[in-house]
Fold:
Amino acid sequence: MLPRILGWAVVLVSLVVGAILAWPQAFGLQNQWIAAHVVALRGAAAAVAVVGVVLFGALAIGRRTRRFGIAMAVVLALFAGANVAVLTARGFGSTDASAGASDDAASDGASEVTVLAWNTLGEVPDAQTIADLALDEGADVIALPETTDPLGEEVAIAMRDGGRPMWVHTLAFDDIAKARSTTLLISPDLGDHDVTSGEWPGPPDNTNTLPTVVADPVDGEGPRIVAVHAVAPIRWELRNWRSDLDFIAELCAGDDVILAGDFNATLDHFAGRGVDGGDLGRCRDAALAGGAAGLGTWPTDVPPFFGSPIDHVLATPNWEVAGFRVVGELDAAGSDHRPIVTTLVRVG
Structure:
């Protein structure tokens, strides 16, 4: 009798834990240790759960363990199904350059901005590789976390030689590690911008551990453009990580903002930080709008389904998504992040 009671207790606890880990924002736990990591890797979590279904299915063959095995297999199947359902709803398909824009936006002749974001893992891809991608995509904005000013200048020179000059803005907290630098390149067609984020880490001037470049238009016309790099939610950085996301959300409180870069967070972690219908601050996620928010951008050594979609482009409602894709053909370039490319159409 006691083993049966203990067995059903394990099943009940597993069901509760599975529900929490499948949708932690319902319990306010999306930014807490363990839950934050599991929800960041929904595809991998689903795969592990499927393995558990097989193992408990085998356990169900025995007469004495049949009910327990079946019950646990059902719990794990529900957990796997929930994660796959969330990823499916967010989308696995990249869009082309015309998929996201409304007919009204196109007919109005609204301006377009193409944004490229790529965490370079301390400058592993060389300047020409980055520039070639940017030129192929027609990038107007390039956000490069973990990229120093010298490499940013090399990219800009290559872009100029390719007929697409760029202004370079780099912010470095120190010269000890390249990860402590972030570079933002902006086309002169978008006007002059000044870096307004602080050189010292920590809100209200910047993210805590890794630099975020905030570039505001000099004449007040045009978008605020931000190259984001939030710290990863490792256990000793959790407080800084949550603070970084709060700071980034505050950056998107205006009417005309474009954010791009490595947020080290998924849509699940953004929960509770959106206002006025936004996903983070007033900004909306381009991957979600483009039907590709289920594709992992990190790490590159696993298929996108099993990875984590932590690289983002977000924009305020005056921009619509006309195209979004995760670039998978450069997985061998050396970075552990996949580049993302978004085309935004101004509608307001």
In short: The mean pLDDT is 93. Residues 103-346 form a domain with the Deoxyribonuclease I; Chain A fold (CATH 3.60.10.10). The longest strand covers residues 319-326.
